[in-house]
Write a structure and sequence with these properties.
Blueprint lengths: L6 E6 L5 H6 L4 E6 L4 H11 L4 E2 L6 E3 L3 H11 L5 E9 L5 E3 L10 H7 L9 E4 L17 H12 L3 E10 L1
Parallel strand pairs: 1-2, 5-8
Antiparallel strand pairs: 3-7, 4-8, 5-6, 5-7
Helix pairs in contact: 4-5
Length: 172
């Protein structure tokens, strides 16, 4: 990690030893809570965040080395975008490549495109501007497994969004 990047790990009741792994990483801040669902875990991390940009990763996500730089560059080039998304590469349980799925969409109107199809595979491919959450309520736990999609729709309805069309995350 660079000195400007910070990692907050929210252990949301896991039983796989991930808290011990996070605790051993000096650059990570570990927050342990009882399992309250992904949306609540993301909101816990959001509440403790201080950075200008946010990425929410799940246990089956792996950011690629240029992911953060790609997101920051796209948001710097498009000051009006509330978030930028990229694309995923699928991986097998052993980490081997399983291909790049179709992730096609038009860039003309992010809100309309998201209504037509949730082309954002996983929250980890989205880099949000932290400032968006100053005026918008965070992830809604009542949306269950679609909380990220519901949030992205609310954001896209209010602000422009974009995609840099680079593969930035491996998803299992």
């Amino acid at each position: 990690l660079r000195s400007t990047e910070h990692v907050i790990v929210v252990d949301n009741g896991s039983t796989d030893g991930s808290a011990a792994v996070a605790a051993a990483c000096p650059a990570a801040r570990l927050i342990i809570q009882h399992n309250q669902g992904a949306a609540t875990a993301r909101n816990t991390g959001l509440r403790d965040s201080r950075g200008e940009y946010l990425i929410f990763l799940d246990a089956d996500d792996r950011l690629l080395p240029d992911a953060i730089a790609s997101g920051v560059a796209a948001l710097a080039a498009h000051a009006d975008w509330a978030f930028v998304t990229g694309h995923v590469r699928l991986i097998n349980e052993d980490g081997s490549a399983a291909g790049i799925p179709p992730q096609e969409h038009a860039d003309a109107n992010g809100y309309i495109e998201l209504l037509r199809s949730n082309y954002i595979w996983t929250p980890g491919v989205v880099m949000y501007r932290r400032s968006v959450f100053d005026t918008l309520r965070p992830f809604q736990a009542s949306a269950l497994g679609s909380a990220d999609y519901e949030l992205n729709l609310r954001i896209a309805r209010e602000w422009p969004i974009g995609c840099h069309h680079q593969v930035i995350l491996e998803y299992r």
